[in-house]
Every structure is written in C-alpha cells, then in structure tokens.
C-alpha cells in the first residue's frame, strides 16, 4: 500500500490500557516521550499510535491514574495497567439520582460493571449478562427466549405483594419495568418486561446498589436495591464511529431423557410392555437452531461546548421454537451543551425502541406444542402428524387439527406453532432533558424531566377446530392493548465546600412522579365461540364477552435531603431523609410518610500507618428505614360493571364487597449493613465484604373476610419478614506482567430469609397456594418460596402404604420439602489478556435449594421417559411398601408411575436439588494491530463467544435453573417450558 | 452579541443575584424548601380521585335512573348456580347428564366423587350474601323496600341450596360485627325460611303491579306474580325436603304452597 511509504521510518504500536480491576481505562493520554505525538485511549481502553521508532518510550497519563512510562522494545502490541492515584481512592461511583460520589465516602455497598463486560457475550438482554458478575444479585431468565423477562433479586424477597425486584435507573431517572403476565401450570406466555427494550450497546457502565441504604433518595421504589445504568455519551474530540456485529447460534440443551421402545397400543399412554423399535429423533428435530444477529452502529463526538452521541441497533432473532422470531430496533440520541461561560449545561437523551415478537413460546398444559411433542404415543408415526397437522373437515368446510388424542393438554405441535399465532409488540420512548446550573463554586442546581412511554399490544389467536377443551370451535382470541407512562421531574440544589479539615456535600430536592400504567383494554373470548370462525375482529366477538378497560396509577411526590460530612478524608458521616406523598394512600391520613438513613465510613488506612501490603482499608456501617406505598385503588374501590347480564335485563353490577381500609399504612422496610473494603499489594488484590440484615413489616396483606362478616375481602398491615446475609467480592490480578494479565473476580453471596410472622391471630395463614401439585408457600416460621408437595403416605416404619389395588397412596397433607431459592450464589469471572488475545471465562454456581419438574412427572405417567423404559426392562421397581399388613418389595412400573405422576400426583420423586455449577460464558477475543494508525480503521477486533456451555456439576436430570416464569411463585418449577439453550457465536467490532 | 443573548444573560445575572449574591444561605434554602412544600401541599388535592379507578362505577352514578338497587340482581341470580365446578363436574356427572371423554386429571376429580374443587360456599357468601346485604341496606336507606324483599328471596333460594350441601350455615347472624358468628342449625333455618317466605309473599301480594324490577330481572321481566310463584315453589321444595324429618311442618307448608292463589 502506498501509505507504507509514509510510515517507512516509523513504528506502529497498539495495545490496551486497563485499570487495576481489569476494567478498560478510557481517555488516558498516550504520548511518545519527548515528542508531541499523542493519542487517547478509546472506549475499550485500546490505543494505536505511530511513533518514531521501536525503541521509544510511551507515557500514559490521566487525572485518574498514576503516570506510567513503558518502553516499546519493538513490540507491536502492549498491555498496560494503570494504578489509580492514591491507591484508587479517587474512584468515582454514580449513586442515586445520578449523583457522582467518591467511592471512599460511600457508607453502603456498590459494585460497578463496565458496559464492555456486559456486551462481551453478546446477550440480547443486558441483565442476563450481569449474572455472576456482581455480588448478591440472583438473576433468573425466562426460558421464553429473546425478548423474554428477567427476574433479579437483591438481598432476598421482601414484599408479599410486590416483586422485590430492584429499581432500574437510566442516567439518574427511574425507568419503568413492568412485568407482563407470566405462564403458570395451565399455560400462558411470558409477556416480557421493561428491560428487554434497552440496547446493551448504549450502556457505558452499570452500578448495582444492593440495599435500601444506598437508594433512600429514590424513596420506596429503591427499597429492593437499584441498578443504575449510565449511558454512553459523546466525548470532546474527533468523532468516533463504532460498528459491531454479533451472530449467535442457540441450540436446546438438557432435554429430558425419553424412551422410544415401548408404545401405547393406540391409546394415549405408552405403557406397552412388549418392546418395539419406534421412530426417534423427532423431538430433537422439532427444535431449530436459533439465530440471533445484532448489528449496531454508534457515532460519538463533540467539542468543548457540545458533545453528542447517536446509536442505532438492530437485533433479529429466530428462536429454537419454530416460527418464533424477535426483532428489536433501538435509536438513541443524546447531547450535552454548555452555555454562558459553561455555567449552564443543557443535556437531553432520547431512546426509542420497538420490539416485535412472534410466537414467543409459553409453558404449561394448554396450547403448548411441547406437551403433544413429548407425550406422543411412541408406536405412532410422528412424521404423518407433522406433515398433516391439519386435515380438511368437509362437514365444516374448514381445516381442523389432526391429532390422535383428544386430551385437554395435547395438541399437534405443528398445528400449535403454525395455526395459533402470538404477537407481542412494544413501542417505547424514553426522553429526558436536564438543565444544570453552576451557581457558584459551591452551589449547583439541577432540574430534570423525563417521560417513559410504552405502547404494548398482545394479540393471541387460536384457530378454529383446534383443541376442543381450550379453544372454542370457532377459534379463541386474547387481545390486550395498553400504554405505560411515567412522567418524572425533579429539582436538586447541591452544595459542596471544604472548611479546613471538614468537607460538606449536601443536597436538597423535590421530585414528582406520575405513573399511569396498564392504561388500555383487553378482551378475551376464552371458550365462548367467536361468531364466525377464524376472524379475529371486535365485530366478530360474541355479545356476552366483556371488554375490560384497565388502569393502574400512582402519583408520588417526594422531598429529600442528604448531607455528607467528611473529616480529613478519613471519616465520612452521611445523613439522608425523604418524605413521600403517595396517592394510593389517599383517604387514610397516612399519605405523607418520612424515612431516614444514617451511615458512617472510616478509611482506616488514612488514620493509622498500615503495613506496606495494605494499600487501602475502609470500614462502613449504615442503617435505614424506607416505606412502600400500597397498590392502586385498594382503600375503597367502587363497583364494577360487567357482571352477568340477561338477554333482556341490563348488564349487572358487581358490587364492591371489600372492607374499606381507611387506616391503611405504608409497608416498612428497615435495613442495616456493615462493610469492609480493602486493597492489598499495591491494589493488586481487592476485597469487599458486606453483612446486611433487614426486616420488612407492615406488609400489605389481602385476606378473605370471614364468611359471616358481610364482606368478602379485607386488607391488613401485618407480618414481619427478615433477610440477612453477606456479600463478598474479591478481585485480583493472578498474573500481571507486560505481556500477560490474568485478572479474576469472585462474587459470593448468601441470603437467609425468614418469615417471622404474618397474621399473629392466624398462624396457618399463608400466601401462595397449590398449583396442580406444586405449592410455593409463604408462611410464618418458614421462608419465602418454601416448596410444599404431596409425599407418599408412609406408616411409622417408613413403608409406603399401598391401597387395595396396590397403588401407592398419597400423604393426607402437603409437606414442606425445602426452599426453592438457592442458599449460596457464586460467580467467578476471569479475564486473561495476552498480546492481542483476550480470553474471558465465567463460572456460575448456585448451591442449595430445590427445583421441581412436573414435566418429568408427566413423562413418567405417560410412560415416555427413559426411566419408565428402564423400569420395564427390569420388569419391576423395588419399593419398600405395605399392602394391608403384607409387606411389598416390588411394584409394576405402569402402576407405579401412573399413580405418582401426571398432575396432582405424588410429587416426591420430582423434587431435585437446584445445586449446579456451569461454565456460563467463554469468550476468546483478538484485537487487530493497525499498521497504520492514521488509516480509516482505527481499531478492529473479533471474538468467539460461548454461553451456557456445560455443567461442571449438577444433580437434577434437567437444568434446574430453567425458569418457566419470572414471577414470585413459580420459581424453580418447570411445566413443559422450553429447554435451556447453549449458544455459540462470533462478534466483530470496528472503530473508525 | 445579539440582543436575545444579552437579555438572557441579564436574566441569568438577575437569577444569580437572587440566589447567590445574597449570602444568607439559610434564608435562601428556607425559601426554596417552603416553596417546594407549598407546591407539594397543593398537589395532593387530587390524590383521592387519582386513586379511584375511573372505569368503575360509584353508587352516586348508579342512583341515576334508580339503577342502584336493581343492578346487582342479575349477578345474584347468576350465582344461584355453580356452573362448571359445582354443577357440571358434580351433580350433572353423578346423575349421568354429563360425562368426561377421558380420565380427566388422572381420574381423581369431582366427577369421581373426589371433591377437589368446591367453591360453592364462597360463591354463596361472596357473590350472593355480601352484595345482597348491601342491596337490603341501600333499599332501606333509599326507601325502596320491595328491592329488599326481592333480595331476601334470592338469599333464601341460595342459602337453602347451601344448607342442603353443608348442613348448618351462617344465616340469621350474617353481617354481625361480633368476633364469634354463630351458625344456624337446619331446624332453625327451615323455620326461619318459612317465616321469611310468609313476609316476602305478603310484601309481593301488596305490590303486584310494581314495575321497577323490569329492567333488572332476566328471569321474569320483573313480573311480581311470577316471583310469587317462585315463592310457592320454593316453599313446596323446602317442605318436601324436610318431609321425612319434620312431617308436620312439611304438611303445613306444603299445603300452604299448594293453596296459594298464584301457584
């Protein structure tokens, strides 16, 4: 190339600059010593520079880090690690309301994860990528694939009525994260949440504030912790264009083990005892290889007055379930302009997204292709039903489903995916504007406004002549369309000043938030027949179907103040308070409520002389109280129109029969935490330990009123739930030299949840109930999500009691067999940088807890599991049982499995350990060396991605993390959910 | 510099004077805090209406066209029956009117006498007794007593079925604010039913041309005579039911029903 002449006497070098925690060091200036040849590290800490010769020295400097000189020694690529000034004490963390604070002054736990780390494995949903990378956050992803919802819980479940999920905040402003409907035992589809709309490419960093202590300024919404998302912004300097493209392939893994040698002799249940050799492989072939492609481009730049950032991202995914697709488009534009001698900064941010999901897979019995697929009677010809999933019904002059069984839960899987369409569509706008005014050196005033608006459409159509139980003869239609809108404004006056040995940073502010959710309508025909078959319009809905209008709205106003007093950079005292006014408490006299927080942090390493090895040591403690408003319209609702009406009489009124709750109080959550932060060996090893304990009281409980009371429902404030536990995060550089850097972070956490009391006068009161043999219960004396199932009925000697027909009998009552939540979470994330290569490996472990599979129970009762074939091969199953007074030592497999399996059976054998350890992520990256740093392409890299590759340890016969839903009660329960996937992919990045 | 910018700068300077040049920081903060508080105080006024669901209907709206008392009746009558769970999966199956094509839920269900689902008790108390209590109270308050009479009849229709299934039930003490609410024994209940049917029948008899039920009555279009027939059939049915345990009462009540002019 002709350009080589230009670079003839020069030497080109590239590399990567990271900080002592392995995160990219951005904006570090790289200068050839003794010259004016310079560049700045980019978004991922990468740099390229053309210097006079291979013997030159490079000087790396920035305000944040200690300056470091590195000899090039003719290496084309160098890794550089910088140490933060003063042992890293200048680290700045974005806290509540977007306020930047020095990490050393914080009196509570926080942990940041860089955007690059989140994007490494090309997850479509940014929260899925956080699993294992931050301590104390338990993340469960719905198995419904792209666009599905996520459940994240910090420090245990705290509320009986709420979801106990953290508040998500974008650049200081709360984001709406409403979870749609979730599947249950009978069926349904994950209707997603507010997280899937976010483009992971727009995230600069994420900070997890784990406890209420950190989030008091957000008021009650932050009581379950906060996940703060800081978006990418333009930077002063030449415009940078980034392009990235990922392609990831998904394959189902951890399928149940099936048998294909015993048929059903024309029946539904494959309980033949004469072995045959039947068609197999059709289950594996049913699932496709899912393909997820993400392409994104961003342009960032600016001058010293104005910076701007623009990005566009597209994700198109085809699921492992045939006909399932997901398409997302994201536009983001933000800008920031300084005016009037840089006294006023006006910034704005607009994020637009659209999501379109077709045929997102569900779970449960009804209208689920997997029931028919898995339970298929083995001697039949599956290909026939695959190729002829519909047959013409000449009596009706339309196509009807072709399936051998008329069971309520069975459908031809190909009919289900081809004829029953599910459409979910979300259009969303998040727009904010902020004005910051530097009044003088000490005072600053900021005001912000934000609108978060989403329009959602759910349209599920079930074709005529399908399943006779779940679908009307003319077809069924579920349709919902609504808006979620949140308007947020705040104004904050802050003050910062140093008085001799003391420093003060204080703020006072007010916020107003108006949330109108679910504002729209839904209509569901259920099994009432549409007037004309297969026409899904309002005009075709029968007269006796009610169109529901829905709404859920809250206004919250808050006044808050916070002051941090520091002494000699050694001790910080933090005081905060907030008063809320919530519209949902109107009429109760309790609509205004105040809560305080106090915390202290002491930097021991500043106070005393420490051994050489300790670079930094800090201890902290804080205590806080927050309060939570109650659900909308629960004080004294009106009556509803839409009860039964007659053909001549008018539609009925359903009268409100709830006891008015005019002394309703907000829920209360107290939280205490104690922590220690330490850095050793010149910050090569870091440790962050937190112990926390908290209690939730005044829970808002809905109770059925006693039958004779004249009412049907009443609410009380009662109960006490405690959570305590610890979070440990250790990071360090295992190997660190000029060529090789291996840095590692281990995150561990343990939470102990206890339901101390619910209703003192009614010790048997419980929340949650039996769902077809699976019960996830909250009851005094236990803990959140205790699993109750029916065990075998046994005599005192432990023998299973058989009935007169020799069938095992079921215990009279459901019994607690464990808890569905894991006891201990572990995430071990490693990054190795060697020359141009980087390798990252994430190992995730969950220890303890139970998982439950009704899928396995069904497969057994239908005789299609490998287990039942093995038992038939052996002839009998050994059992320690008693029939009348006669001991029984073996039982016939069909009798045994038909009795215990299916719905509502004896679920004892279907409770498994949740403990599992897996290689969750493996990424191998390569950064290209740019021979010509003045060229068009500044930076290029490619990486190979693997996700959920294999288990290092697992006890359950399936993936126990498989989540059919992300609501609070069906955790750890699987009812014909889509199996989890193993993913492989490739990612390209180019910077211009 | 154009004039616009100059005036803006002036405004900023003025703002700065108000906020900063005044060195009395405490005063300034107080002013801001007071302003915010006043703003908030005035904003909570709409909380009450904001916390009501606009898609629901208030008693005040229902009073228009005298809909308040009649509108719950179609719901009350609908809930006299148990539909899928208590009818189709129980008696209809047991009597052989209906059947299941497959062994439903492993054949362990209501149709095989394993009463897994039973919501009739709650159906009666939640959807008949509780709303009808409101109807009776509102009828007295609004001085439309015949709606209370009608509601009482619907209650007996419903409760007589419940007691047949459950034996003693809460009836005469229904709606009590006491901690302990006593059940009625079956013998007390049937006597009370008969007594109440007497008074219902005489209320109806005195208002045979009453037209206000028409709009709300899916069964008889508000025809009082038809409801009087219902009173008689109910009386006869109750009498037949107790004919083996209290033949004397059964005879009196049965004959009373048969002798009634409207039967």
TrEMBL record, chain A:
What Gene3D superfamilies is this protein classified in? Carboxypeptidase-like, regulatory domain (2.60.40.1120), TonB-dependent receptor, beta-barrel domain (2.40.170.20), TonB-dependent receptor, plug domain (2.170.130.10)
Keywords associated with the record: Cell outer membrane, Membrane, Transmembrane, Transmembrane beta strand, Transport
**Spans traversing the lipid bilayer:** none
Q: Name one Pfam family in it.
A: Plug
The record's subcellular location field reads: Cell outer membrane
TonB-dependent receptor plug domain spans which residues?
103-226
Top-level lineage group: Bacteria
Give the membrane topology, semicolon-separated if more than one: Multi-pass membrane protein
Q: Where's it mainly located?
A: membrane
Q: Which family does it belong to?
A: Belongs to the TonB-dependent receptor family.
Designated name of the protein: SusC/RagA family TonB-linked outer membrane protein
Organism the protein comes from: Niabella ginsengisoli
